[in-house]
């Protein structure tokens, strides 16, 4: 019932499985890969489930990494591919809502029953081409239904991450969440806050970079989880905006629509920035009045930073998201910008993300892409060496000319750089002349900045 994939990654996984079989053990493909194969799409990776213990797995293969001996999971490296081999297990007594207190090795049926959703609980024997379906996954797959294995409420209470995993699978596969499962999720939605920040972040990363992150966010909202993970977004609901710029509705509606307009599979930073770009608006308008949002990008940038910290994003991701939120209004002044301002913008490592954010933001509101087109036309036409040309002079040139190291030199250099980026000067001599002129002019007591006794001919009298 399943056509064997032809790729290398499958071939290596099958080798691992056959090797286990040859040693007299049971071995089956398990979980997500079986679901994906039955749906006719390429699995991300192949997981093998077996009755061999981790020690036996380790003995059987040359290169293995123990990733969770307690859970019986071993990674086997085979032909450059990593195949996860897990011993059939049951888990019991999740007293903390995160980790099972006890793990026992068992057979495939019990292993299926500890899995989260029926469609994720199937095994496939590739040698006999037989699917082992102990939880009703085949039927749910046919009906496009996401259903918890066993009693939904119990299963979500055991491990709270399953609440958000439900959103991941329902959104990705366009499945309906079965009624009891859905009711249990809504009832227990508050428990999503007990999930560790790291696990939650990783689920959000998967969801927000998937094909339709906006649909996932709307589902998360329906299931009463979005406002728990991002309480700051709750204020955006009902935060009114002027209709001429925002025919789509309030800040909340606009926010989700902005994520939608990013298109499929945005990068994580961009998706987070889109989700948070207007998070400062409610506060700004509380200060300034209805329809006024002065400084909302700065307020929002600080809020975004706090949110990213709470979710334990990396510093790099946090800084980028904060920058994107802070700069998200920047393109609206682009047509008035000087050459150097545009070049500095192009040189920013997050420029392309900012452009995408601006585009989505515009498409999610009044739809005017004039500023976007203007900036991108300049960006496309500008050779990289013009965006960040080599500096014509540096600090030691000025020190050699007799200027004291200090802030003055920095200021002069910055102005020389401006002139270079604006195309006013192109050569080193011009740059040196301009720097000397500026240094003298900027210095509070003119030539006094120079070291005594050091003569210099470029100085004005
Ligand atoms: P993806 O294609 O996104 O990787 P997947 O189904 O393979 O989806 P994984 O997170 O890789 O999902 O987990 C592999 C399998 O382990 C799942 O299919 C499911 O059977 C089981 N599983 C994972 N996490 C849980 C959990 N928290 N509770 C119960 N079973 C789980
Ligand atoms: Mg997987």
Jot down its keywords:
two-stranded antiparallel ribbon; 461 residues; disordered C terminus; binds adenosine-5'-triphosphate; single chain; Beta Polymerase, domain 2; Hydrophobic Seed Protein; 23 helices; alpha+beta; seven-stranded mixed β-sheet; 11 strands; binds magnesium ion
SSE order and pairing:
Elements: H1 8-22, E1 27-30, H2 32-38, E2 47-50, H3 54-60, E3 64-68, E4 73-78, E5 81-87, E6 89-92, E7 102-105, H4 108-113, E8 122-125, E9 130-133, H5 137-143, E10 145-146, H6 152-158, H7 161-173, E11 176-177, H8 179-188, H9 197-208, H10 213-222, H11 226-229, H12 251-261, H13 268-276, H14 281-288, H15 296-310, H16 315-326, H17 339-347, H18 351-363, H19 370-381, H20 384-387, H21 395-400, H22 407-421, H23 428-442
Parallel strand pairs: 2-5, 10-11
Antiparallel strand pairs: 1-2, 1-8, 3-4, 4-5, 6-7, 8-9
Quickly describe the structure.
With 461 residues, this protein is of the alpha+beta class. The chain contains 23 helices and 11 strands.
What's the main sheet like?
Answer: 7 strands, mixed
Helical fraction equals 40-55%
Find the count of extended strands (DSSP E, 2+ residues): 11
| Strand arrangement across the biggest beta sheet | 3-4-5-2-1-8-9
CATH architecture of the domain at 8-143: 2-Layer Sandwich
What is the residue-averaged pLDDT?
92
* Computed Rg: 30 Å
Describe the structure.
The chain has 461 residues and is an alpha+beta fold. Residues 451-461 have low confidence and may be disordered. Among the domains are: 8-143, Beta Polymerase, domain 2, CATH 3.30.460.10; 153-227, Hydrophobic Seed Protein, CATH 1.10.110.30; 395-460, no CATH class. Helix 7 packs parallel to helix 9, helix 7 (161-173) packs across helix 10 and helix 17 (339-347) crosses helix 22. Helices cover 49% and strands 10% of the residues. The site of adenosine-5'-triphosphate has 10 residues, from helix 7. Magnesium ion (MG) binds at residues 32, 44-45.
